[in-house]
Structure formats: structure tokens, C-alpha cells
Design goal:
One of its GO terms (cellular component) is endomembrane system. The protein is mainly β. It contains 4 helices and 27 strands. It has a domain of 113 residues: TolB, C-terminal domain (Neuraminidase), CATH 2.120.10.30. Bound molecules: 2-acetamido-2-deoxy-beta-D-glucopyranose (NAG) (2 copies).
Length: 331
């Protein structure tokens, strides 16, 4: 009896170990990097992901290969852009594009994309050139559109602008100076209007709409926290700080249990004096009270590398990273 009790009480500590035994890498084509965010369409095809050279790719598991699906810039050419890294090159980013967030509206099978240089776009169901649907709000052009989530019922698109002062190539500087000009926006596809829901955010990053559509979670990367914005009920349009995390939160994705997975990167001292090592992890949190339900250390797969997203899938998940040359998967 005693051993059963001890076993039961030791279970919570087990969840802090690596619960996935299998890690796979899906190498991107050419020299491109940065599968930043991951989406599946209404019939489960994918993963789809936007990469550093401006393409949105679709992975085909049967052919075990990535294919070009869409692009965000009308004057992008494959000869100039394919295989380039536009994370740090705004000049080439303006020509080639840099899709970051990807999220489907299942009813129309349209893929919405936030591009760091172009704004919010929508890709027609068969792919190719995306249409730009928002380039600014309140008369101010976007500086750094970041991530998004789609309300599957209304079709509204919630998206973040990391900063309205600094662009993607300046993201580290924006964090260092503790920029807090990030915004949360909403695009209404029926009216074509984009409105500002929140301003003054410190590195507005991941965004996820709750399963019951009553609230949004928003990660503030620079402030190490996740905010909750009520959309309905007695507290509608007020925010609370849901949780402060150790490290920098990036994308947020909901799972089928109505919890949320947050990609979080921390730094620990390295082997030599003054050196630092990045430790990427994925934490599963409750949207109700902000409790951490599970922590998965991914540093054995991503050595000294930040991750951007943990997209739950089956019993595991897909992993995005701004600088990685492959899409990861654990299960
Ligand atoms: C084409 O690329 C240039 C950058 O050289 C950019 O300034 C311009 O806006 C692009 N044109 C369109 C239609 O996006
Ligand atoms: C981890 O990466 C950073 C740069 O990305 C580097 O400055 C640092 O030295 C690396 N740490 C180790 C222990 O290699």
C-alpha cells in the first residue's frame, strides 16, 4: 500500500522529464531556415510552415518532402529569394517576404499569414500569391507583424505586432531596450477593418484564442509573461497577467484538452566563465488559472538554440525555430 502511495505522489515529478522518446527532423529545402510556426488545413494536410526565404511550404508525408505552397510578396522571384535568410535583412525581406505566423480558417480553407515585412495576408485555397488584407492600423503602417490565431466561428483574425518601433532584424535590440510598443490587433474579414485591441505590450508574441472563444492569451516576450484578455462575460475587454514564466515566451498553441502550449527559452550559465547556453522548452499551462501542468525540456534536440513554437499533434508535437534548418517533431 505504501509503495502505491509513494508511486502516486512521485507521478507529478515524472512529467518534468522528457515524455517523448522519439525526435524527427524534417530538413527544409535549399539553404533556408526558420520554420517559425506550424499549421494544418481543414482536411489535416500539412504541416504548413513559413520560412526565412519568404515561402510558405507544405510538407507531404507520402513523398517525405516539402513543396512550395504560397508566397507573400508580389515581386518575389525564386532566383533571387529561394534559400536566403531574410530574418536579419529587411531589404531582401521587403522583396522576398518573411512569413512568420500561419493559421487556417477551416471553413474557407484559407491560410492566414503574418509576414514580418508585409502585414496580414490571406492565401487562396490552392496556394500561390497571398493577398495583403492589412498593412497598418489607425493610419500607422505595421513595423513588425508577428503571430496570429483565427476565430473558427466568425473568421476574425487576432494577430500581434511585436513592436511598432522596431522590425524583425532589430528584435534583440527591442528586447534589450525593453520596448513596450507592441499591439494586439483584430482583422474582421467581413468589413475588411483592422482594429487595435491592446497597445503598450512588451514584445507582443504568441496569441491563442481559447476553445470556448471567451478569452485570448497573449505572450509578452520581453516581460516574461502571458496575459489574458477576456472577450466576453462581465470582464470583457479587461486583461489580467495570467502567468510570469522563467524565460522568454514565444508562440502559444491550444491543444484538444483546452490547455495551451507555450514555447519558452531560458538561458543558463555555460561551461566557461561568462558563457551562456540557451535552454528551449515547451510548457503546458491552464488558461483558467495559469498553472504550469507540464514542462518539456527540448535542449537535447535543440542544443543552444531557441525554439519558436510547440504545436501539439497527436501524442507529441511539431517544433518551430527561427534559426533551425529543419522542422522538428517529438512523439
Ligand atoms: C517590390 O520590392 C520593392 C523592394 O525593392 C518594394 O519596395 C516594393 O514595395 C515591392 N513591390 C510590391 C508591389 O510589393
Ligand atoms: C550559445 O550561443 C550563443 C550565440 O548564439 C553564443 O554566444 C554562446 O557562446 C553559445 N554558448 C555555448 C556554450 O556554446
Amino acid at each position: 500500500m505504501l509503495s502505491i502511495v509513494i508511486f502516486l505522489f512521485s507521478v507529478p515529478s515524472l512529467v518534468f522529464c522528457q515524455p517523448f522518446s522519439n525526435f524527427q527532423k524534417y530538413d527544409l529545402p535549399s539553404a533556408a531556415v526558420g520554420p517559425f510556426s506550424i499549421a494544418f488545413d481543414s482536411s489535416g494536410r500539412g504541416p504548413f510552415t513559413g520560412i526565412s526565404d519568404g515561402r510558405v511550404l507544405r510538407y507531404d508525408p507520402v513523398q517525405n518532402s516539402f513543396f512550395d505552397f504560397a508566397f507573400t510578396s508580389p515581386n518575389r522571384s525564386k532566383a533571387v529569394c529561394d534559400g536566403t535568410d531574410n530574418n536579419d535583412n529587411p531589404t531582401r525581406g521587403a522583396i522576398c517576404g518573411r512569413p512568420l505566423g500561419v493559421s487556417f480558417h477551416f471553413r474557407t480553407n484559407q491560410l492566414y499569414v503574418t509576414d514580418a515585412y508585409k502585414g496580414l495576408l490571406v492565401v487562396p485555397p490552392n496556394g500561390r500569391l497571398a493577398e495583403n488584407v492589412a498593412t497598418g492600423a489607425e493610419g500607422v503602417p505595421f513595423k513588425f507583424p508577428f503571430l496570429l490565431d483565427v476565430d473558427q466561428v466568425t473568421g476574425d483574425v487576432y494577430f500581434t505586432e511585436f513592436s511598432s518601433q522596431f522590425q524583425l532584424s532589430q528584435v534583440q535590440h527591442a528586447i534589450d531596450v525593453r520596448d513596450s510598443t507592441g499591439r494586439l490587433l483584430k482583422y474582421n474579414p467581413n468589413t475588411g477593418e483592422t482594429t487595435v485591441l491592446l497597445r503598450g505590450l512588451s514584445g507582443a508574441a504568441g496569441i491563442a484564442l481559447s476553445y470556448d472563444r471567451t478569452y485570448l492569451l497573449i505572450a509578452e516576450m520581453t516581460a516574461n509573461r502571458v496575459k489574458k484578455l477576456w472577450l466576453s462575460g462581465p470582464n470583457a475587454f479587461t486583461t489580467v497577467d495570467l502567468i510570469t514564466v522563467r524565460g522568454r515566451p514565444s508562440n502559444i498553441k491550444k491543444n484538444s484538452l483546452a490547455d495551451f502550449w507555450v514555447a519558452v527559452n531560458t538561458w543558463i550559465p555555460g561551461p566557461t566563465v561568462g558563457s551562456m547556453i540557451r535552454v528551449p522548452s515547451a510548457i503546458r499551462i491552464s488558461g483558467t488559472g495559469g498553472a504550469i501542468l507540464q514542462t518539456v525540456d527540448l535542449s537535447s534536440y535543440y542544443t543552444n538554440t531557441s525554439i519558436s513554437e510547440f504545436q501539439p499533434f497527436g501524442l507529441g508535437g511539431y517544433i518551430g525555430a527561427l534559426r533551425a534548418a529543419s522542422l522538428g517533431r517529438v512523439n
